[in-house]
Specification:
Blueprint lengths: L1 E3 L1 H13 L5 H16 L10 H10 L9 E6 L2 E5 L5 H19 L1 E9 L5 H9 L4 E6 L20 E7 L2 E8 L6 H10 L8 E2 L5 E2 L2 H6 L1 E2 L5 H16 L22 E8 L1 H5 L3 H13 L9 H13 L1 E3 L1 H11 L2
Parallel strand pairs: 3-4
Antiparallel strand pairs: 1-12, 2-3, 4-11, 5-6, 5-11, 6-7, 8-9, 8-10
Helix pairs in contact: 1-2, 1-12, 2-4
């Protein structure tokens, strides 16, 4: 393992992407997202994604030069077409526009279609909370979860996230996959040859497995069993049917350069809290959070990320030597 500063990682990420048929503007947007994930201790969504992103941009599965388009389809409704490009530039323009108009409308919905992996969903909602807004986000992904009682993965892991501002404190961030474990963690374990706990995944024959590679190629169990599978179905409707994008079972993998673009979708709803409940939101939110923290052993969601983030900004982050070797190879062309 080697320690790299966040600035160095950002420069490496931009360099790899620009060497992989990606515009400077898109490379910066993607690098921002990957490095922030590493800073928060979420390595599965960090620069570990660069080899896959590079291969897909070179192959044309991701259009690294895509310029997402934004259409205002209603007073408080925005549609963004990622145009087979990276998700992050498309999400950026959608949320920037939402921030611009939500003061007038109180609520704004942003639908992003024909997109790719959206990274850490909580980071997108957190940026809204940083400017005093609340937001909820949904995304689908390629097939991972079978309908309850079935065996063929029809739904993605389908993360959801929520953030809201706090009074004199960093925003509250809730971010969870609807599978029992995030797919990226299983992929990381498979890449490292590590076992996974039983109860996370099934192999392709529908049997429980602790083999990370077999689980990654099989299916993921939903959190909450049948209830989680129902929520995954809901997210497919919100992110695919409502954005004109692929359902999970139609989408190609985020991890290899095979096939056509995954063309998944994302849905964001941004709120101005004062427009819903008056000026008392921050005080009421703090009342609940203080009551939670009164109980010994409790913590607020996202608190560990903030600790990791502070440490990463001060000390940098550890990156596996094998990944750095891959990055050097990609930079060399």
């Amino acid at each position: 393992m080697a320690v790299r500063s966040l600035g160095d990682l950002h420069d490496l990420a931009v360099g790899v992407l620009k060497a992989s048929k990606t515009s400077h503007e898109n490379a910066v947007s993607v690098a921002n997202a990957l490095v922030k994930a590493d800073a928060d201790g979420l390595a599965s969504h960090g620069v570990a994604r660069l080899p896959a992103f590079s291969a897909q941009a070179i192959a044309g599965k991701i259009d690294g030069f895509a310029e997402p388009s934004l259409t205002v389809t209603g007073d408080a409704v925005l549609r963004v077409d990622a145009r087979s490009g990276f998700a992050f530039p498309a999400i950026d323009i959608g949320l920037d526009k939402a921030q611009e108009i939500v003061g007038r409308t109180g609520v704004v919905a942003v639908a992003v279609g024909h997109s790719h992996n959206a990274g850490v969903m909580g980071h997108h909602t957190e940026r809204m909370a940083d400017v005093g807004l609340a937001a909820i986000a949904f995304t689908n992904s390629f097939g991972a979860i079978a309908p309850w009682g079935g065996s063929r993965p029809l739904y993605g892991t389908n993360p959801i996230a929520f953030s809201c501002p706090r009074k004199d404190a960093p925003p509250l961030v809730v971010d969870t996959s609807l599978s029992k474990i995030a797919r990226g963690k299983v992929k990381l374990a498979a890449d490292r040859g590590e076992a996974i706990p039983e109860g996370w995944c099934l192999d392709t024959d529908g049997n429980p497995t602790t083999d990370a590679k077999a689980g990654f190629e099989g299916s993921f169990l939903p959190m909450g069993d049948a209830r989680g599978a129902a929520l995954a179905l809901m997210v497919e409707m919100l992110c695919s049917a409502m954005t004109g994008s692929n359902f999970a079972f139609e989408a190609s993998s985020f991890y290899d350069a095979e096939g056509s673009p995954p063309h998944v979708g994302h849905l964001f709803v941004v709120f101005k809290p004062e427009n819903l409940g008056g000026d008392g939101f921050l005080d009421r939110a703090e009342e609940l959070m203080a009551t939670i923290l009164e109980q010994p052993g409790t913590r607020l969601p996202g608190s560990r990320r903030l600790e990791n983030r502070d440490k990463a900004h001060a000390e940098g982050v550890e990156i596996p030597d094998t990944l750095l070797d891959e990055i050097d190879t990609l930079l060399a062309g």
